[in-house]
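In this section we walk through a basic example: taking a raw amino acid sequence and producing a predicted 3D structure, encoded as discrete structure tokens. The instruction is simple. Fold the sequence below.
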Amino acid sequence: MLLREATPEDWPAIWPFFRSVVAAGETFPYPLDMDSETGRQWWMHSAPDRTVVAVDAEGRVVGTATMNRNRPGNGSHVASASYLVDPAHHGRGIGRALVEDSLDWARRAGFRAMQFNAVVATNHHAVNLYRSLGFEIVGTVPEAFHHPVEGYVGLHVMYRPL
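The resulting token sequence is shown next.
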């Protein structure tokens, strides 16, 4: 698997799994009916922020991550990131590789920490992955996410120093 900077030409390959994951309503607090152009604007960052894609041996985009400062001004020393893996390719280490890449980027860019503002509490796979990479749950906003099956569940704020 190759991780590389995303280009505008990658969006048509990202959009199908972006759309399916967002429309499922289980892991991202995005509008369920988001259109492609809005998704592209939200996901495809440019410098100094960053968007990458994970490409398999056949050249298919199988995952993506977006990285940015968590807040402007006096909060700009903390990075944040979001990750999407094509559900057809789960369990192959793509998510771990994307998180590790974002941590490396944040260190190189001079950030002091990384924070995730809205990790859905029922997204156990992501929570366990982030914990295994040194993130801690520093707080949970009760019932801040409306899960389509579980009902109102918490959103974790997860943090790790760099």
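Looking at the output, two observations stand out. The radius of gyration is 15 Å. The mean pLDDT is 96. In the next section we compare this with other chains.
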